[in-house]
Amino acid sequence: MQNQDKSTGDPTLTLSITALYDSTTVNVRINTISVNSFNPKVTLSTLDETRILLPSKIQLFGSGTSLYVVSITSNNPVSVVSINYKEQSSDSASLFPVTEWGTEYYIVTPSDGSFQEFAVIAKEPATITIYPTGILTYSGKNYGKGNSFTFSLEGYQVIQFQSQNDLSGTKILSRKPVAVLSGHTCSLKSTLCNHVYEQLQPTLIWGITFFVPTVSYQTRYDLVYITAATQNTLVNYQAGTLQNNKTLNAGDVMVLTLKANAPLFINATEGIQVMYYSTGGYKGIEKYGTVLLTIPDVSSFCTLFQTVDLQQFSNEAILVAETSDLEGITMNGSSLVSQKWKTIQGTKYSWGEFSLRSSSKHYIFESTISPFTVSVFGVSRQNAFGEVATCLAGSSRPSCSQVTCKEKEICKIANNKAVCQGTGEATCWAWGDPHYHTFDGKNYDFQGTCTYTMSKTCNPNLPFFNIETVNENRGSSLISYVKSVNIQVYNYNITGVRSEFGIVRVNNQKVQLPINLNNNKLVLAYSGNSLILQTDFKLKVIYDWNILLRITVPSSYYKSVCGLCGNYNGNSTDDLVYDGAALTPIQFGKLWKVNETSDGSCHDDCSGNCVTCTSDQKKLYSSIQYCNILTQINGPFNSCSAQINPSIYRDNCVYDLCLNDGYNQILCQTLKAYSDLCARAGIQVGEWRI
């Protein structure tokens, strides 16, 4: 981001990269810059650190977008620190791997100084909404508190916003994971103006327990910014003998004063973001400026850290560790137990400050007993910086760096764990007489009246589910509809029976909706005359107790399901294939018949000659007075057609009216089913009922 103004010259932009394993190859690229002009490639051994100098022209300046996005790739995990240096204004920030990016952030920009700024970086195309707390300008229009705005970024594109207002509490929401940097071009409080910035943590990995130590040479005060993302977050804090608490709501930012020799202990009921802001001061005769630093929560403590001594600065390491385990901590192999530690009142932790003034440029801090944390602060003539040391091992904080996900999955941090989640989803449905639409998009008709497997898990490494339907004739032995749906999941048998609105049978016992089962991992609700079942692994089943059944699975189940809904492998041409042979819908239906629970009188065909539509019937029922109202330009469903293609619903509507001699109730059921789909997608349709 922008470091001061152009009159102070170009910054020195550097990446510090540390390898965690031997034979680690690192490549650095800059989007839109030719590999012939810039393409560093280095091979590192364990704990080796290298510096990559970046061209100064990639610095963001002012508000606007840029395609100068730096990407670092490696064959093994590495840690990366970015450094933005000018002789009288510099800062550094630890960078997160793409797997730990998120979709929700809250900005922190301390109020004093010139331009508050933040930047949003996208690796893939993303739609982003900003909820500002101060004035922001986008596309020539000003937006203030209460006025959100939305924009899109291309892949490998960044946008920077600057403002003369404090932007703390500004919320950023993205449909895709993004990175967010926040800071100042030149932040001024007590003494000098200094460029400060940090890469923010997404809300999903915020912690609840924090320690904020003080630096010995700050004789006045510094500030601590605490941000909440959840309503009614109770924040308890203690500094020396002072104890207090405050309840914060989402987007609230609380500022605490950090006084000399009175470290803060903070604990919250929900995840919070804690940032330390050094107001500047004097270290001996040296005047120094402001520093912005993200405080790690206790779950981010590690047993092994590395930090690099910046030669232009007088550097100090600040450690926080359990008091009982201080004897196990070393710096470059030398014990620190004899050094002066101070207890943090009311806790089992202590903090200590240690000078980095040996001939070594690299410092290794290690504990053989328990995790701890290390931050580094540097002061030089009219300059300062601060950063959390690089964690190399022993963190209890969830990380995706060691997680391998399968096809159609990505690692994300959820509920304080690194888990693989699907990157998308697929939907199958049975509707009407019944028309089937597979996960891969194949449409076919099948009139069997037995019990059939719609879809089930066919991979033992995934959470098991099995969804079966019982079909029945209605009004004619030639056509069939869904009579009931049975869902087996988490050792429950859940059955929805036609016309039993608001009721399901759980293990053969009738239960009124809504209900939560298996510690809320299984939720059943009644909404819009439909049963909605959802699991914690993103399975979703909707049944309208009449003619429509929809099953949605996350892409974690890619190539891992089977049944009438197909195999979900991205290829619709093999959905009705078995052992290499193409099957008719009747043959395919027989393949997934559940013989054990099928009635002896049921059948898999039309129980006679299957009914077909005459050309006159197709013409009649394809008119606007009937099924073509779904596709009518400027008709009641026009607002929805761009998002949910109505063509297959229209074709199935025509087919069902043919089979039911134009029975008007069939038309109404069809239009209602499509209208409900639009409503669930958040789209309002026009009046279609007569």
TrEMBL record:
<dbReference type="Pfam" id="PF08742">
    <property type="entry name" value="C8"/>
</dbReference>
<dbReference type="InterPro" id="IPR014853">
    <property type="entry name" value="VWF/SSPO/ZAN-like_Cys-rich_dom"/>
</dbReference>
<dbReference type="InterPro" id="IPR035234">
    <property type="entry name" value="IgGFc-bd_N"/>
</dbReference>
<dbReference type="InterPro" id="IPR001846">
    <property type="entry name" value="VWF_type-D"/>
</dbReference>
<feature type="domain" description="VWFD">
    <location>
        <begin position="426"/>
        <end position="603"/>
    </location>
</feature>
<protein>
    <recommendedName>
        <fullName>VWFD domain-containing protein</fullName>
    </recommendedName>
</protein>
<dbReference type="Pfam" id="PF00094">
    <property type="entry name" value="VWD"/>
</dbReference>
<dbReference type="Pfam" id="PF17517">
    <property type="entry name" value="IgGFc_binding"/>
</dbReference>
